[in-house]
């Protein structure tokens, strides 16, 4: 007589366990896919994308200078991006230090330059840059 009660209990138990397993797999999948995304640096000047590079393609550290009323020089390395010099008076962009994680950015308001580190999957502006380069 308790059979049906036990079966129901077990069925709901299995469903619950199933949901937990599915959630765990989903989280793991999300974690792995986000981990596999390449970091990509985007440099904007006056809201225009002027430079973009996947950090995985950086073999040797090099400097990239944004020329304008105020020049901003960025050191681009395999594992991050650093503003190493700027003509701006506040130097806030340099104080941001090295950007190493997706979503981090260094903005130089006086020079109207922003350096943004993002996942290459999110770097939708890539096509736009290709258009300019051609
Ligand atoms: Zn600055």
Structure report:
With about 130 residues, the protein is an alpha+beta fold. It folds into two domains: about 1-35; about 40-134, N-utilization substance G protein NusG, insert domain (mini-chromosome maintenance (MCM) complex, domain 2, Sandwich). Helices cover about 35% and strands about 35% of the residues. The protein is built from three helices and eight strands. The protein has helices at about 5-35, 90-95, 125-134, and strands at about 40-45, 50-55, 60-65, 70-75, 80-85, 100, 105-110, 115-120. The strands form two sheets. It has a four-stranded antiparallel sheet. Strand 7 and strand 8 (about 115-120) form a beta hairpin. The radius of gyration is 23 Å and the shape is rod-shaped. The chain starts with a helix and ends with a helix. Zinc ion binds near residues 88, 92 and 111.
How helix-rich are the residues, as a percent range? 25-40%
Major sheet: size, sense and barrel closure?
Answer: 4 strands, antiparallel
How many H/I helices? 3
CATH topology of the largest domain: mini-chromosome maintenance (MCM) complex, domain 2
Radius of gyration: 23 Å
Q: Which structural class is indicated by helix and strand composition?
A: alpha+beta
């Amino acid at each position: 007589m308790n059979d049906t009660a036990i079966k129901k209990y077990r069925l709901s138990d299995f469903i619950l366990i199933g949901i937990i397993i599915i959630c765990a797999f989903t989280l793991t999948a999300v974690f792995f896919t986000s981990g596999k995304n390449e970091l990509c640096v985007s440099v904007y000047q006056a809201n225009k994308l002027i430079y973009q590079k996947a950090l995985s393609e950086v073999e040797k550290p090099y400097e990239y200078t944004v020329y304008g009323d105020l020049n901003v020089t960025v050191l681009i390395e395999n594992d991050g991006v650093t503003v190493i010099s700027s003509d701006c008076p506040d130097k806030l962009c340099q104080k941001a230090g090295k950007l190493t994680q997706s979503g981090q950015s260094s903005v130089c308001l006086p020079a109207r330059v922003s350096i943004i580190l993002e996942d290459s999957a999110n770097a939708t502006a890539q096509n736009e840059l290709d258009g300019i380069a051609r």
